Amino acid sequence: MSKSTRPTISDVAKAAKTGKTSISRYLNGEKHLLSDALLARIEQAIAELDYRPSLMARGLKHGKTRLIGLIIADITNPYSVNVLSGIEAACREKGFTPLVCNTNNELDQELHYLDLLRSYQVEGIVVNAVGMREEGLNRLQQSALPMVLIDRKIPDFACDVVGLDNTQAATTATEHLIEQGFEAILFISEPLGMVNTRRERLSAFRATLARYAGVVAENVEIPLHEADLLDNALRQFHTRHRGMRKAVISANGALTLQVARSLKRIGLHWGSDIGLLGFDELEWAELAGVGITTLKQPTWQIGFAAVEQVVRRINGTDDAVREQVFSGELIVRGSTAR
């Protein structure tokens, strides 16, 4: 056998002076059917040949690949990175391997990866659908694979969902700003579209401030990288409520970074000129100026729970579709201090 050729089960059988059936029994955990002498020869042959069985081939043969497909809308988002950590831990514990696909919010990539995952015969899919286009969502709906959605629901699609308790989190964040004496609060999000997380957070923000007649409540939708629009919105909000104690709530971590940059561009300092509170805990939040108050999501737990649920579906549970939500944690820093 050439050194460049990958050894086969036949090569192992020849080196161990036995048949392929015995090698298959060894690889499939049926070692009790083999004599001690034969076991020793097989182990020696595998070591000498550096034989590595094809897990994919074995999985396909038995109808189980032990693969879980993971579709991420934007892997550069800190939220997604942290969720991935929990997903990987759960896959390792449950004996699955995650097959990660980053769509980069591009429709062609979404459709490509959905087809790719089916071709690899993954046993289930975990989807972070924020940013997915309608055609991609429709393709998901047509899939018969066990599936769990993270963070975003799909309209008219009965599917398990794991994510943050957005109503509780946004209420906690808003009430904190009120308790700190802010008199005008601006909620900034990316365009709402059909993204339930943005809608739920905004709805809770409005509902909370409806109980406080003396506090000004405003909101604006701005695409993530529209710096000029963001600068103008913040500048006008600050000017419009001159003399009042003002604060901004940012609907996600990526947007919080853009808000921080915008405030710096227009010469406003969080903590003194204006308050700032952002959803998602960011590694740099405690280091930025006086620190930025954040609403921390239990991202690791969300990722872990999503895999646990999809594995339950893979194993055949027919329980009713469920939505599992986790509470957020408010981390108070100087940006919202009195």
Order of strands across the main sheet: 2-1-3-4-5-11
Rounded to an integer, what's the Rg over CA atoms?
Answer: 26 Å
| Percent range of helical residues | 40-55%
Percent of residues in beta strands? 15-25%
Question: How many H/I helices?
Answer: 12
Summarize the biggest pleated sheet: 6 strands, parallel
Q: Which structural class is indicated by helix and strand composition? A: alpha/beta
Task: Please tell me about this protein's structure.
This protein has 338 residues and is of the alpha/beta class. Helices cover 44% and strands 17% of the residues. It has twelve helices and twelve strands. The strands form two sheets. It has a six-stranded parallel beta sheet with strand order 2-1-3-4-5-11, with helices on both faces. The protein has a six-stranded mixed beta sheet with strand order 7-6-8-9-10-12, sandwiched between helices. Helix 11 links the parallel strand 8 and strand 9. Helix 1 (9-16) crosses helix 2, helix 1 (9-16) crosses helix 3 and helix 5 (78-94) crosses helix 12. It is elongated, with a radius of gyration of 26 Å. The termini are far apart. The mean pLDDT is 88.
Question: Which keywords apply here?
Answer:
alpha/beta, 6-stranded parallel beta sheet, 12 strands, 44% helix, elongated
